[in-house]
């Protein structure tokens, strides 16, 4: 007999032969759509019931192989081997389920059999297998089916058994492409109360672990519906509920109360909702059309019992999981503007993911969405590998999280502000280092049953992990671990949960234990480290432990980062951690080039009005509350093609970039879309990132060696010190100073015995103090440097008087280190005969420098081997000569500085004059001498314009002999040259402020110097005498003596606590 809707021959109708054996089952294939959701266009049609399926040829018989157990086994094996978590498919090309009936289901057969199975109550079993798209589920489903079927097949009360798969999640913008749900169902003769208990016990006793067993009326019609038999629309808050019900009427409405700070009341309300929902499944008859259920979540902040807030998303998860477990669906979640901003921290939502803002019921149903909890982004932990959690489990995990979240140590970032404290800690205790994993910080909590729960640290959201982690829970019951959920490089949906520390082991607080002992408990759980198990399990997630090493090997971790998941920087954990202190001593380091911040996008505009390729997104941050504010009117420019989905309200992560001049800007790293619960950084956090630079790689490596720089005397950390050989300990500079040691400013030696200068507290070693007072006993006193050929009168006089001035100071002060500005090269022979060891001359004329260099080379035989002479072309009156150029050439101070010519050039302004005098004073040793020569115009000013056969002077009508003014001078009827006024009183006053005192024996006119020269017997004219009286020499000696040092005693010379 040919079945009208069959694609093959089937046995005769039941009335044509005797009753079949109770273990015989007729085989049927279900050709239902892969995704079943509410279709508002088919609201008036009946979409469930076996009659509808037979009529539309969606229920097809399969009799290949004939009767018997072998044929049945081949049928089920063939079917389940082809079951896969395929992508979205709305057609009916491939079977999506099977139905095994004790009766023949045919439109030409016994109608009562079809009606009996369609209306029969039974049970719907949610099978726990991987639910993401592409996962391998066939072997697990086949094994579960065998356990399930062979447990029920001999029971005469069973009318039909079957399997059906469905798919939910309609968003194409997420990486997670939706959730696949797999169900077994069994139709039984109208049961008695004891029958219900019997079947529930039998189903719970099979080997595979069902997620939920639900009693459903007309279960075959319910499970084999062409549309979703029951759809839920959720509203959050009264405003959203009123708007939702303003256009449209649900079949049933339920109310749930959320008490964010009272988890017990919240769970009681959820239990009441679950009871009503499951009662609806048992009471509804035949399921002719999809049932629309409205669930309103009312948020009540009036009760404050706990400290950990229960997120509204966790309540949505309960509602969504209940729908997943019962083959129902959620058509959408409706929120109002206030609820969206207050509860989720965002201002926008995307309808593509099933979120609706201020929407009506008819609008939501007409949109045809399928809200998928596993692909909904909330917070920082991926949702697709979580599983349903019971009320008791949630309350337990919430209680433990409430205890341990406040004491979960957050690493202190290493930057300029924390560097000193970190150096102190690193010098005291040994540290262990791990790679800093990029991911979401979580707590892993196990209970006494071996279940493992995951708590998002930032949002407080709690979820259960799949059952295959019971191995960890069985080895570490009632324990709490600190971990990070990170993406795996194996696949875009693969994740690893990396255990980084342990807080409690079997209810015992282990935080105070030394780190090696604490980490032993983690290794005791037989967790693989990420290096030995780099890939996740078939269920897309694995729990592994991180790898620690001693801090001295941190460089190795940087060179060899983990190959299985992303890392950025390092985390340092001390040997002993005291989390009860205010500041934790766990530190983290991120390279300065990888500093990021999270913003919310404000307005998005075109950078160039004529082209939209380059966009500008203005950056918003969070204030002290949950509101947003502009971050200093800063923005990020990006290419539109790199982030086409970016719009106002999106969450983005940006990299901080800096230039050499200290300015900064932002570069777009990635956009996070409109993830619920993903919060931007606060204004204060971003300010610290911008204005408190992090540590460089070199500084971080120094920090690891901080113990080497811990002073054995004062126990402070300082890299300015050296080893004390006597005590075999490192001493800092301060302790060396307290015991009469320091860094000599003159010779540059480090941590040597010496004394401070009484004038400016500069430190000089004892050896240098001795050289400061040592004179050149071998100097040739009386030797006069010859003037150059064809020299003028002024040059002749200057060369002779300068040689005489050098003879005056040589017996009294050290002259071994000489600086001569505007040198001219005339006195090189004099300094060589004076046995000066080091000489540096400067002149602005390159011809003078070249001639002087040749002279030095020709006189090298007259110098000692240790002598150093050099003449350099430079402007000694420039602003940066003394602070930059001179210190590079000659970093030490000088015994003598001279300015026999050109001294007046520094007196163009009062500022330049004071700067030169101050620079000269800083460049002299204590007791060092400065000699300068200049034309003193003050005695001639009272005579008016002056002139004779030797020189002539002119000045302006308003001229005064003060600093900053100048006059014109001509010698031997030559060209008039500009000469700046050098006031003697100003020179002496400024010198005194800089610690320079006048040397009377070296202060005189050139006439006075020559009068004391017994070797000078030349007759001079009256005009030449006037010139010699106007030329003046002045000498200063820098104050300063060795300060009485601290006498080392037993108390300050030995280590002290």
UniProtKB/TrEMBL annotation:
InterPro entries: mRNA_G-N7_MeTrfase_dom, RG7MT1, SAM-dependent_MTases_sf. One of its GO terms (cellular component) is nucleus. SUPFAM superfamilies: S-adenosyl-L-methionine-dependent methyltransferases. Its EC number is 2.1.1.56. Gene3D superfamilies: DNA ligase/mRNA capping enzyme, Vaccinia Virus protein VP39. GO terms for molecular function: mRNA 5'-cap (guanine-N7-)-methyltransferase activity; RNA binding. The keyword Glycoprotein does not apply. The keyword Transmembrane helix does not apply. Keywords: Methyltransferase, mRNA capping, mRNA processing, RNA-binding, S-adenosyl-L-methionine, Transferase. Residues 804-957 form the MRNA cap 0 methyltransferase domain. It catalyses: a 5'-end (5'-triphosphoguanosine)-ribonucleoside in mRNA + S-adenosyl-L-methionine = a 5'-end (N(7)-methyl 5'-triphosphoguanosine)-ribonucleoside in mRNA + S-adenosyl-L-homocysteine. This is mRNA (guanine-N(7))-methyltransferase. The lineage of its organism: Eukaryota, Discoba, Euglenozoa, Kinetoplastea, Metakinetoplastina.
